[in-house]
Amino acid sequence: MSEPNDVRDDVIVSRRGILVGGAASAAVSAIPASAGAAAPQPGPATMTVSFSVNGRKQDLVLDTRTTLLDALREHLHLTGTKKGCDHGQCGACTVIVDGKRINSCLSLAVQHQGDAITTIEGLGMPDDLHPMQQAFIRHDGFQCGYCTPGQICSAVAVLDEIKAGVPSHVSENLTGPMRPTNMELRERMSGNICRCGAYSNIAEAMADVAGVDAAGERA
Amino acid sequence: MKAFTYERAKTPAEAAAIVARMPGAKFLAGGTNLLDLMKLQIEAPSHLVDVQDLGLDRIEKAPDGGLRIGALVTNTTLAADERVRRDYGVLTRAIVAGASGQLRNKATTAGNLLQRTRCPYFYDTNQACNKRRPGSGCAAIGGYSRQLGVIGVSKSCIATYPGDMAVALRVLDARVETVNAQGATRTIPIAEFHRLWGDTPHIETALAPGELITAVSLPAPIGGRHLYQKVRDRASYAFALVSVAAVIQPDGSGRVAFGGVAPRPWRVEAAEALLPQGARAVVTRAFAGATTSSENAFKVPLAERTLASVIAQAKG
Ligand SMILES: Cc1cc2nc3c(=O)[nH]c(=O)nc-3n(C[C@H](O)[C@H](O)[C@H](O)COP(=O)(O)OP(=O)(O)OC[C@H]3O[C@@H](n4cnc5c(N)ncnc54)[C@H](O)[C@@H]3O)c2cc1C
Ligand code: SF4
Ligand code: FES
Ligand code: FES
């Protein structure tokens, strides 16, 4: 299917999945192959998917191959989420889905039917920054900024994971409560690569939001 | 990526039946390995059966005092489960030593077990690879083999099983529960799950086509000190060069398996019986008959030193 520039070409108006709109929506809709169907259909298959992004419901018709990352960037034009490697190796594409951070490049959009997705735009905008965004500015937690949306989404989720008691590779005691020490923050952020090397300032920004010093003690 | 159709199965038997019936169909769980390989066209399924709605996402107490872990439980949920942290610490430690927080939130128990090798030639579709294209040869033999296997490998393929979680499951004597297209269930001991592939390196596990993993079960807790030590090229977010999973009892006896060295988690029961004699005795026995290259011969002494470190930690 051709890629519409205007996301509205993609919008489905009927719950039954009947398409309206421009030429882009002339593509075939998906034929699930369950009920004893024969060979899979040749050529690109499209499907309808609905999820909420930053609190707004979105209905899309997508080639099944579309990753969540490409759906956000190319179809919803939420370009805050970045594509670095497209293979799960850099963390630039990190978004928060139902409260958990994931790599949006290694997830198909159609896997997210009904999910609640938060991107960097949903955490905060320039006139209303999230505390983690403010802390990144205060602590110089970036240089070029390319990895930053992923870093911030990851950082917000990391503090929640620590609160929820999720252990990490550097947690000495697996059964006790988890603490946001500098070592813990660094280990938990290892899935976010920063080519500019802003790592130490990112850890400081996170400690600031967590209200702790480098030893993880209440500051 | 090649085009594919997609559907969500409603029951485990239905999922198995679809994949068994349709050539080119595959299960999709978290997608963190399969989609990666599909982007490179190393995998090119024509139909994906998403298993996320099958209700296999719970960890339940088993009648024998163990735990039954649903196939779709994420790596994070499993590692963070209070019972796992308390009674099966080696499993938590192995999981959190792998991948990244984002990946572990998406990766599932079954998908993790079935992750494919990280041999660089497997990833490069211009290279000969018996695993990717049976009969095409093996570019790794005589090539860049630093990361590759030293024991249990064959003349057809010297790759390793790269995962961490399964190394812990091996010392815990886990069992893999499955259902097939006819709805029949069976239980596969983890020791028999990953194959020593011999001349058929493209067949990696004991699963039949279309057979779906429904759960992984752990026997009742065995006590002891639970340790997982992973040696890699950087401190985090890298695959193992060598790893050691161990459960060591106060009398110095215990269980040990090695990761990053073989087509499957490498546990030799006759070797671990030598644990009270120290790391050298265990590794000499466990790696007897190792076939190393000049680039990966370091893995055998590294395994010994890593085990020595684990034994020292167990005493401390
Ligand atoms: C950058 C990066 C770094 C990584 N580092 C590590 C590491 O250090 N250590 C480590 O252990 N792993 C590592 N991984 C691998 C990661 O652990 C796996 O990608 C993940 O566990 C796969 O789980 P999944 O649910 O996403 O599987 P999927 O990708 O969904 O599936 C994998 C395979 O399993 C099959 N499958 C899935 N569910 C079932 C089922 N129920 N029954 C039968 N078949 C099924 C699929 O058909 C597919 O063939 C890394 C991955 C990446 C991308
Ligand atoms: S070692 Fe195995 S996976 Fe690697 S190139 Fe040879 S056959 Fe392929
Ligand atoms: S773009 Fe997703 S991890 Fe790099
Ligand atoms: S700020 Fe440039 S890559 Fe991180």
From TrEMBL, chain A:
Q: Which CDD domains match?
A: fer2
Report the GO molecular function annotations.
2 iron, 2 sulfur cluster binding; metal ion binding; oxidoreductase activity, acting on the aldehyde or oxo group of donors
User: Which segments constitute the 2Fe-2S ferredoxin-type domain?
Assistant: 47-123
| Key word rRNA-binding present | no
Q: Please give the GO cellular component terms listed in this UniProt entry.
A: periplasmic space
Keywords assigned: 2Fe-2S, Iron, Iron-sulfur, Metal-binding, Oxidoreductase
Pfam family membership, one: Fer2
Protein's name in the database:
Xanthine dehydrogenase YagT iron-sulfur-binding subunit
Taxonomic source organism = Sphingomonas gellani
Tell me the lineage of the source organism: Bacteria, Pseudomonadati, Pseudomonadota, Alphaproteobacteria, Sphingomonadales
UniProtKB/TrEMBL annotation, chain B:
One molecular function GO term is: FAD binding
Q: Which organism is it from?
A: Sphingomonas gellani
Annotated keywords: FAD, Flavoprotein
InterPro entries registered for this protein in UniProt: CO_DH_flav_C, CO_DH_flav_C_dom_sf, Diverse_Substr_Oxidored, FAD-bd_PCMH, FAD-bd_PCMH-like_sf, FAD-bd_PCMH_sub1, FAD-bd_PCMH_sub2, Mopterin_DH_FAD-bd
In Swiss-Prot or TrEMBL terms, this protein is called Xanthine dehydrogenase YagS FAD-binding subunit
Report any Pfam family annotated for this entry. FAD_binding_5
Q: Where is the FAD-binding PCMH-type domain?
A: 1-223
